[in-house]
Specification:
Mean pLDDT of chain A: 97
Radius of gyration of chain A: 21 Å
Mean pLDDT of chain B: 93
Low-confidence stretches of chain B: none
Number of domains of chain A: 1
Structural class of chain B: alpha/beta
Number of strands of chain A: 20
CATH class of chain A: Alpha Beta
CATH topology of chain A: TIM Barrel
Distance between the termini of chain B: 26 Å
CATH superfamily of chain A: Metal-dependent hydrolases
CATH class of the largest domain in chain B: Alpha Beta
Low-confidence stretches of chain A: none
Shape of chain A: globular
Oligomer: heterodimer
CATH architecture of the largest domain in chain B: 3-Layer(aba) Sandwich
Strand content of chain A: 15-25%
Largest sheet of chain A: 8 strands, parallel
């Protein structure tokens, strides 16, 4: 189908475009921007007057909960949440049940996702079997099946020799290794940042050094092995400083942060709000400010939703017993815009954090609007305010610290491969 | 942020923590309690009909004999109907969630829940969940709070020392894991005690504890110097397994309260303990049974203080 998106403000960080331009789509791909190509007759016209047209967003961490946790969420529910949030590609961590450690599981997931023809799913394979941190998975086979990188998700890998071997093996094939730094001994039983709030509420705590010690280990091993390391969901000012130094020294390193940690701190836990039970824990306001600045400076490359749908019952428990995680796919755009506004980032730079930068980390040709690329597009109303309400969320996960809040920026259309997969008035 | 313990008129709706309560409410509780105590507290407290026809449910998800018993006695002296439920840890293995249990008891027309739970925040969760006419008293949640214990400690201090504004109070022991210590600190600072000290090795202190308004000491001799009140805390045996302490013997040597160390405090200093005591670990028997110990009067006052709280919450206003 030939589609013309008319009069929208086109923001394409990769091509440094920010102007009111028409966009032309044919055969599922971007054909041109600006003037009507010769002989182009639109079969469908989208009037984007007053709207922003950006590359479809790419989320580096979205748990779809399949296989194994279908009571929390299904591919159907979470894929429709993704496109409702303007996300056209997402990487899903391997912490399913069973973990994504067999090519068959990955093929099944890819197949199920393709059949829904909504967002593109990029599985991140398990680095070790069953995420147990002992034996390496068949990474090359898993990559053939569709894995784009390898990770332990939130599972610990305490044996540093296994970690080094895993990095060496991944580096052999130039596979990316994605790790969230957390020392499992220091973090044991912890549910909140080791600070004022945990002390006041009597919550078992996780000190910042649980993150920095694990990060230091990772950085040393990355230096030794030459692996492409992607550091996931850092939470502290100290980690931002360490990543900054490592990048300066020239290490092949990328880093992301969750949108929750850009906007919230331990103070938001209030009186035991289990919606704020997140992993890593929300740290103090100084950490939050460092993360915001790190994202602005580019020390942190990407912002992700860290979408982790949890069923209601698992949140209706005392804070420490409640399951960690929050829904996020539908909030990524407004929370990115909110950060851009507060942090004085240009829209072009802000949108790069959810488009071209994550595409580079995933090593995929997406996240931009150059002619010839798949027409994955998000069109949103930058002025529209909307209230986050559980019933209105498409995700099966209804818990988020932002519930009840008014956010600015609403997705109007989402296109994947030139097909309109979501639209609303 | 709204204080979940107060209703919109600023009156006590639940008692979940001593934190964030205005001093007028704390004094109100202490004054009410003294009305239930005869003279020096040696005689039995008379039965009053303030909670006649009300149902009080003691729901204890964690074992406790003393606290549950004193709540039970307090409720009976107020003429309430009391139901005791020792749920222990078996409820989760049966698959019933905390709030399911609470819903079931609400259906049995409970007017008040006395809750003890191993997890911090359990009483808050229940208070948020129940209908507005139901009151919740926190009888200890994880490491977070044990407000009636702290209030009975305040009652005891006031009984012996009359005023709060000229006192130096030391809390000794496992502050990190202690809900009692947290509630004591908030109550003492709210009531205007100018100097609250905590004395413990670094492994038993939470980070940023000084932000609660206390002075930190690691040396017991320095910490006890010239104090008016010594609040001892119970040391759990599992602290030795968790690498928080090398041995009970070493702990007693450096942080156990002996006559010798107590001599550094003011001559008229009083010694308190929330019980149950580990004699020879945190406190020497000669101190526990000595002339400066007010550990047993604490227990008696505990009944009056719990009567005061219950009648304030559910009695006719």
């Amino acid at each position: 189908m030939k589609i013309q998106i008319k009069n929208g403000r086109l923001i394409d960080p990769k091509n440094r475009t920010d102007a009111v331009l028409d966009l032309f789509i044919a055969d599922g791909k971007i054909l041109a921007t600006g003037k009507v190509p010769a002989g182009f007759v639109a079969e469908k016209m989208i009037d984007a007057s007053g709207l922003f047209v950006i590359p479809g967003m790419i989320d580096l961490a979205a748990r779809l909960r399949e296989p194994g946790y279908e009571y929390r969420a299904t591919l159907e529910s979470e894929m429709s949440a993704a496109v409702a949030g303007g996300i056209t590609s997402l990487a899903c961590p391997p912490d399913t049940d069973p973990a994504l450690d067999e090519p068959g599981l990955v093929e099944m997931l890819k197949h199920r996702a393709r059949a829904l023809s909504q967002a593109n799913v990029y599985p991140v394979g398990a680095l070790t079997y069953g995420l147990k941190g002992q034996e390496l998975t068949e990474m090359a086979e898993l990559a053939d099946a569709g894995c784009v990188a390898f990770s332990q998700a939130d599972a610990p890998l305490t044996d540093t020799r296994v970690l080094m071997r895993a990095m060496q093996y991944a580096a052999t094939f130039d596979f990316g290794v994605w790790l969230r730094p957390q020392d499992s001994f220091l973090a044991r039983d912890g549910v909140a940042h080791d600070g004022e709030v945990a002390t006041r509420l009597g919550l078992p705590a996780i000190p910042v050094c649980a993150e920095t010690i694990a990060l230091a280990t990772m950085l040393q091993l990355a230096r030794k092995t030459g692996v492409r390391l992607h550091v996931c969901r850092i939470s502290s000012a100290e980690s931002v400083a360490m990543i900054r130094e490592a990048k300066k020294e020239g290490l092949a390193l990328t880093c992301d942060v969750s949108m929750n940690h850009i906007h919230l701190s331990e103070m938001d836990i209030g009186f035991f709000d289990s919606n704020c039970h997140l992993m890593p824990p929300l740290r103090n306001q100084r950490d939050r400010d460092a993360l915001r600045n790190g994202l602005l400076e580019g020390v942190i490359d990407a912002m992700c939703s860290n979408h982790s749908p949890v069923d209601e019952d698992a949140k209706q428990l005392p804070f420490a017993e409640a399951e960690a995680g929050a829904t996020g796919l539908e909030l990524l755009l407004p929370l990115l815009l909110k950060w851009a506004q507060q942090g004085k980032s240009t829209l072009l730079d802000a949108i790069a954090k959810v488009t071209v930068n994550p595409a580079r980390i995933l090593n995929i040709d997406a996240g931009h609007l150059s002619p010839g690329v798949a027409a994955d597009i998000c069109i949103f109303d930058p002025e529209r305010y909307w209230k986050v309400e559980a019933a209105a969320l498409k995700s099966q996960g209804k818990n988020t610290p932002f519930i009840g809040m008014e956010l600015q920026g609403k997705v109007r259309y989402t296109l994947v491969n030139g097909q309109i997969v979501y639209q609303t008035t | 942020m709204n204080n979940p313990q107060l209703n919109k008129h600023g009156e006590l709706q639940h008692l979940l923590s001593t934190e964030g309560l205005p001093s007028r409410i704390l004094y109100d509780i202490l004054d009410r309690a003294s009305a239930f105590v005869d003279g020096d507290g040696s005689r039995e407290i008379k039965k009053v009909p303030l909670l006649h026809g009300k149902s009080v449910f003691n729901i204890f998800f964690e074992n406790s004999t003393r606290t549950r018993t004193t709540f039970e006695i307090a409720a009976k002296r107020l003429s309430a109907d009391v139901v005791n439920l020792n749920i222990g840890s078996s409820s989760t293995s049966k698959g019933e969630t905390l709030l399911d249990t609470v819903d079931n008891l609400c259906a049995m027309h409970a007017d008040m829940f006395i809750v003890r739970h191993a997890q911090s925040g359990a009483a808050h969760l229940i208070a948020k969940h129940v209908a507005p006419e139901i009151h919740v008293i926190n009888a200890g949640d994880g490491r977070h709070a044990h407000p009636t214990q702290a209030l009975l400690d305040m009652y005891t201090i006031r009984h012996y020392k009359k005023e709060f504004h000229n006192l130096r109070v030391a809390i000794v022991g496992d502050i990190l894991h202690s809900r009692v210590a947290r509630s004591q600190i908030h109550a003492l600072t709210t009531l205007g005690v100018p100097e609250v000290r905590v004395i413990a090795p670094k492994t038993l202190l939470p980070s940023h504890v000084e932000q609660l308004g206390v002075r930190v000491f690691h040396d017991m001799a320095q910490g006890l110097r010239d104090v008016d009140v010594v609040l001892m805390l119970r040391l759990q045996n599992e602290r030795m397994q968790g690498a928080a302490l090398p041995s009970a013997q070493e702990y007693f040597k450096y942080y156990g309260l002996t006559q010798e160390k107590l001599a550094l405090a003011k001559a008229d200093a009083i010694v308190m303990h929330p019980g149950p005591m580990n004699r020879g670990i945190e406190i020497d028997s000669s101190v526990a049974d000595g002339g400066q110990s007010v550990i047993l009067p604490q227990v008696t006052f505990g009944i009056a203080v719990r009567m005061a709280v219950m009648s304030m919450l559910a009695g006719d206003k």
